[in-house]
Specification:
By secondary structure, the chain is an alpha/beta fold. It has two domains: about 5-160 and about 195-220, Rossmann fold, CATH 3.40.50.720; about 175-190 and about 225-275 and about 295-315, no CATH class. It is about 40% helix and about 15% strand. It has helices at about 15-25, 55-60, 75-95, 125-145, 175-180, 195-210, 230-240, 260-265, 280-285, 295-315; strands at about 5-10, 30-35, 45, 65-70, 100-105, 150-155, 155-160, 180-185, 195, 215-220, 245-250. Strands 3-2-1-4-5-6-10 form a seven-stranded parallel β-sheet, with helices on both faces. Strands 7-9 form a two-stranded parallel ribbon. Strands 8-11 form a two-stranded parallel sheet. Strand 5 (about 100-105), helix 4 and strand 6 form a beta-alpha-beta unit. The chain is globular. InterPro entries: Epimerase_deHydtase, NAD(P)-bd_dom_sf, NAD(P)-dependent_oxidoreduct. This is NAD-dependent epimerase/dehydratase family protein. It holds the Pfam family Epimerase.
Length: about 325
């Protein structure tokens, strides 16, 4: 009997790291993106426009589990995400595949200073948060009605190898390695949860292997929320390079976050001006999966950025 086929939609940091994890676990893996060039050794790579129902249906043909890790630019989310949901729900309904959805904390809205658990009410105040809440309700309704088998996996801000577009990403680590100026959002002394990309991958893979876990929201393994200051202090200890920190206390363009991005992100900036503490204890208890210690995850991230920056600095072959 052949190993289960897991189809990973999207080859960004989450999708690629998940595909690696699934291959390590002995699964057959197919990655899907627009180019078909995002594959890994041992995985099948397919090009598909997932907005096209026929193309999406072909892309997931034969899948036991489909992982929705497609990333959509902020300015396109409200328009594109609902259409993508309909296509994917119809496709998995037709094929019988289980659907694992990579989700965000946006449906909760402001935390009001309370830890976020799977039982926290959905009080989204942003357009993108309300849209995500509507999609999540539709996913769970499809599961309850027996039209599809769906599970939602939520994470806080990503960090780790390959993670560039994050509040703990390309605005932090290159500066920390070069002695430049790193960006911090909102407040240095508010606790703020960060989820290691390796834990995202392990959590998504585990959910895909656990049919009984479907029909609900899970918080992926995430360490107890440190303050941003403590996180940046650890980064400095790991790089051994003194660097400055620029605190952006309101959503203004800065460095890699241009005016267009910040205009779209402004409605979500509350995440950095109040405590954002994500509680993943339900997942940890149920599956016996502990999050990667913060120092360990940061060390892996520093090592990846060091290699990434060195590779970028190399002249092209033949020059």
């Amino acid at each position: 009997m052949s190993a289960p086929l897991h189809v990973v939609l999207g080859t960004g940091p989450a999708g690629t790291t998940l595909a690696e994890e699934l291959l390590r676990r002995g699964h057959r893996v197919r990655t899907v993106d627009r180019s078909g060039r995002g594959g890994l050794p041992g995985a099948e790579a397919v090009a598909a426009d997932l907005g096209d129902p026929a193309a999406a249906r072909r892309a997931i043909e034969g899948a036991d589990v489909v992982h929705h890790c497609v990333n959509v630019a902020y300015e396109l989310q409200v328009e594109v995400m609902p259409r993508l949901q309909k296509v994917l729900l119809d496709a998995v309904q037709d094929t019988g595949a289980r659907l694992v959805v990579m989700d965000t904390l946006y449906p909760y809205g402001p935390s009001l200073g309370e830890p976020l658990t799977e039982d926290t009410p959905w009080r989204a105040t942003s357009r993108k948060g309300r849209m995500r809440a509507e999609l999540d309700a539709a996913y769970l309704r499809a599961h309850e009605e027996g039209r599809a088998r769906v599970v939602l996996a939520r994470a806080a801000d990503f960090y780790g190898p390959r993670v560039l577009n994050s509040s703990l990403g390309a605005a932090t680590f290159p500066a920390a390695l070069s002695g430049g100026t790193a960006l911090a959002l909102g407040s240095l002394d508010m606790p703020h949860s960060f989820t290691y990309i390796g834990d995202v991958a392990r959590g998504l893979a585990r959910l895909g292997e656990e049919p009984d876990a479907f029909g609900r929201v899970w918080h992926l393994p995430t360490v107890a929320a440190p303050t941003v200051r403590h996180t940046l202090d650890l980064v400095g200890q790991l790089t051994g390079v003194p660097f400055e920190t620029h605190l952006l206390d309101s959503p203004r363009p800065w460095g890699p976050f241009d005016e267009g991005f910040m205009a779209e992100y402004a409605e979500l900036f509350y995440q950095h001006t109040e405590p954002q503490v994500m509680d993943s204890s339900a997942f940890e208890r149920t599956f016996g999966e502990a999050p990667t210690p913060l120092t360990e995850g940061l060390a892996a991230t520093v090592a990846w950025y060091r290699a990434f920056l060195a590779a970028q600095a190399q002249p092209p072959a033949g020059h």
